[in-house]
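Hello,

Following up on my earlier ticket. Below are the two sequence lines again, exactly as submitted.
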Amino acid sequence: AQKITQTQPGMFVQEKEAVTLDCTYDTSDQSYGLFWYKQPSSGEMIFLIYQGSYDEQNATEGRYSLNFQKARKSANLVISASQLGDSAMYFCAMREFNNAGNMLTFGGGTRLMVKP
Amino acid sequence: NAGVTQTPKFQVLKTGQSMTLQCAQDMNHNSMYWYRQDPGMGLRLIYYSASEGTTDKGEVPNGYNVSRLNKREFSLRLESAAPSQTSVYFCASSEPGGLGNEQFFGPGTRLTVL
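Thanks for your patience. The regenerated structure is below:
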């Protein structure tokens, strides 16, 4: 089974509107972390936000927030007030506690396109 | 601080040729990683090094070897390149231990195998 599933291959959003990018995960660990990375067309991977499985509050970083629903195993990224520069690929990733190498498992990504 | 650097940025190989991708980090991180990203897909782990002197296989290690030369440097070698290894290769580093420890990525190497 896929550990990280991003079901939206591509999405459009109007500039200045909010958008939600979906991410569901599968793990039997009680302790894990969820990450979102942005990959613009230039190709680099940019860390956006992190949520720990035991964090009681949803993580926020500026215009980014993470809608964490543990029982549903979802960790959706919400971008408020979209900007043209938000057009990029977005990847959800997970690190599990019982993971010797501290490695990340990535989803397939969502391409977000912001319309002016 | 350069962060994570990778060389080369681009490379074209013929089937059967060999090459080494270089990666270095200046953040004093203990853990380093090599990922590949195929078109339209997420990153998949090839090999990682949890600390200097150790290396372990990831999800897709076949056809690759790695060397953790010292704490700063982690190289990836393709002994006999195949067209299926056409991909973008990313090196990353992080501190081990904490679940929330972010991985820092290099700019990537775009490899084409003809």
